[in-house]
Specification:
single chain; 199 residues; alpha+beta; nine-stranded antiparallel sheet; 5 helices
Length: 199
């Protein structure tokens, strides 16, 4: 890790701890923006499950809309918004390349999930049309019966996605919109720079 990249991750870790200790409903909530091969964007909120020098990790069905789009177009953007922090809230923006986590890493995380969440991962055909809520509830009952008395394995097609940053921006909200923005960015050779941006 370069010193500037380490500085950016350290700054994120400090702010993340502040958000978890503060009034945020869920500091792990982040918006994930993707785009299809035609450049049409879509965004949704997921939960950050891990981060380190390798990147920021969330879990999903790989056949969901976001999973398909990230398979076709590896570029992703993340947004954390912690409204309760400091003077007028803090945003952290992360842009980078998406890659799958190792299978062992996905297995280890899946094993920590509540059992009903594990069964839900089997029952949901994420992003696909559903005829009725009753159909989904029946699928839940079917998988509950299938795995009764034993551990629930991670389903094929359910895994983690790691966004490897090439740009991280910290936006410190201020009154009268006189915000402070710091941008860390890697060039094509992987060298990181840091600069202040106009609000």
């Amino acid at each position: 890790m370069t010193d500037l990249y380490a500085e950016a991750l350290s700054t994120f870790a400090q702010l993340f701890e502040e958000a978890k200790a503060g009034k945020e409903i869920d500091a792990t909530a982040m918006t994930v923006a993707t785009a299809d091969t035609d450049g049409r964007p879509s965004a949704r909120t997921v939960l950050l499950k891990d981060f380190d020098e390798r990147g920021f990790v969330f879990y999903t069905h790989l056949h969901s809309r976001k999973g398909r789009e990230l398979h076709e177009n590896r570029q992703a953007a993340l947004l954390f918004l912690w409204r309760s922090l400091r003077e007028a809230g803090i945003q952290v923006r992360v842009e980078g390349d998406a890659q799958l986590v190792a299978e062992a890493e996905a297995d280890a995380y899946f094993a920590t999930r509540p059992r009903m969440s594990q069964i839900g991962a089997w029952a949901s055909v994420q992003s696909q049309p559903l005829a009725s809520r009753e159909e989904f509830e029946q699928r839940l009952r079917n998988f509950e019966a299938q795995f009764e008395g034993r551990e629930v394995p991670r389903p094929d097609g359910w895994s983690g996605i790691r966004v490897v940053p090439r740009r991280i921006e910290f936006w410190y909200g201020a009154n009268f919109r006189l915000h402070e923005r710091w941008c860390y960015e890697a060039d094509a050779a992987g060298a990181w720079s840091k600069r202040l941006l106009y609000p």
